[in-house]
Amino acid sequence: MHILTLYQSISRWFLLLTIAVSLAACGLGGGGSDDGGSGTDPIPPEPDASYIIYVELRDLDTDERVVNPNPEEPVLVQVTVQLDNGDPVASENVIVTTTLGELTPSSGVVMTNDSGVASLELNVEGQEIGSAGEIVVTYSSISTDQEPYSPLRFTVEEPSLQLGYLDGDQHFVPGGLDIPAQDLSSKGSAPISVYVQGPDGNLYTKRMQVVFSSNCSLSQPAAASLDSPVTTTEGKATSTYTAQGCEGEDSISAALTAYPGISASGQLTVMPPEVGSIEFVSAEPEVIHIQGSGGKGTSEVRFQVFSKDDLPVSGVEVNFSLEEGEGNVTLVNSSGTTDAEGQVSAFVNSGSVALPVSVKASITDSNGTSFSAFSRGLVVSAAILDQESFSLSASILNPGGDSIDGVTSTITIRIGTPDNTIPDGTAISFKTEYGRIAGYCTTVDGNCSVDWNSQNPRAPIDYEFLGDDGLMHSLRTIFNTTCPVTGLRGAYPCPQSLGQPYGGRSTILAYALGQETFNDANGNGEFDTGETFVDLPEAFLDHNEDGAFGNSKSSGSCYPDCPEVGGDEELFIPLNDNEEYDSGNGIYNGLRCSKAAEDEGTCSKELVHVRAAEPILVAGSEPYGIFKIGDDYSSDFPEIDIPVGGSGTLYFYLSDKYNGRLPLGTTIKTESPHCDVKLNADAVANSNKFGPSIFKITVNAPDNANPGDSGSVTVEAHVPALEGGSGPAFTDSWQFKCTTN
Hints:
By secondary structure, this protein is mostly beta strands. It has 2 helices and 53 strands.
């Protein structure tokens, strides 16, 4: 525990004199300062007040005391402020700073609770092991980095991680490597694996880089090679060791890149080249697909046998076995004989589970000595998209274009498969509620993009409602619908939704054939009866964003009991020819359906449409605004009263005619020759949230302002000409009055 006893004796009159001097230049009115007020006079501490401050680091989960933090686990900085009689100092701000790492909140300003305790987080991720830092606490006018006090000093230490391997009982053995081939041919290859154990005794699932090396790989020239660095997956990293002239025992080590002191080691023996060797040549193709997926399910794995003189040897019998993937994939042949080039092939057939596969090829010389090599890079892939890994985004969520053609937003789809092997050339289809979008794109590295363009249509064709103006309309606007909060209709934003049908919003749908997502509780890679899953209905374009298919003319829709009106023109993507919208079928659909579950009728290998949707704002460009002062809304020069030495707050609502956000690029500013005004933001955000943009405006009055002084404040919004379109820019302004009382 770091304890600082701070004695503070400050004269009330001296402090008041200091405050008076610092505020002498402030004022409100024509000749006043524009640097803002300082708020009400602070109350200085009583003379001879003394404090005790405790500063310590604690574990976020266990609340145990921590001496030094590590980069993997943020810690709690706990500050306790007491009077010298032991009473807590409650509801007071302290300021905490650090010379190393990051604090949360980043400002370092935290308030003590009723027990006089203030807490915040310290994260030293990315900091070098052994680097030192200091934490300084400031309370009132006292800082702990000044004599006779001292800051809390700490040193970044290594986390409590270990490298090791899993034995036959799946128990973690620290310090060693998993080396399945202890005797390796002179040019053979073998996988070397290491596991990372976390502080809780379980495998550490955070992805980390591991550096592999050996004596032979570090020699000049290198006599062996190792894949390095390797990133862990679920706590495991595997490197391929390839002998390239190394002989005898080679010591192999693995260490975490971020923490070189955390390491493990092991040995293997590379057989002398004079007794012959076997090497892995290729796997073609390297990715095969699970049975029933429609892709190629067989790979040819080739090996080559060499003599002691490094020449290919024909007529050598080679035995094959599965090192990884056993139990799901199958070997067509368990042995083969090398051809004139010394090459021989094993053929691997996929099964029903996606997983990596390694084939072991072994030969025996005339003395009965065996040599082995292992294939690498062969993977059985599901090759079918699943719902959980289907993601849609828009570069601009509020592009605008309600009356301007040619405004664009780039729509990007990102896909994945359960085993993260993503096939290129996968076709993704698109539909849009309003405007125009390309019908499809094909993926490269799991991504592809299309452009959405503003153009007709921009409103429903069939649906109409009677507006508050007595006329029929197809979309809600601030001119045809009375705001339920303000009671206003016209050029005034409404603080809440105007209701359905929403104007200026277009839903974009992306979809492709794929499979449902399930929770693989037993980890066997297949759906089994009793495992939970997400049962998908047929995909549809959700015009009114209520999550329910509401076309009144389609069988199977929610009409007339839909959550929202306005879904009359929604379209669904049929999976069959029954001409009606189908909800989920109550069973898992996907190629990972196990045979047992399929026989029990709880799953099917028939595919469904995986889908994602994103609304964008086809916003208008003409701005409308209204102020909120207290509980009152007005755009007609409202007045806000500010106490001398204080501040006041009002809010400005800014929208298009649909009561939504204006296009991205819209800016806002304030001007006043008399009032000190601050805005919390100066632009409309990239967002598709409902309702208008809300800006907080703070008005300050300095201590030397004159009661009764007043002035006007202008709030100006500028909507630029939209990129890609041909429409004009718009600028409008509103005013309010600020008065000092």
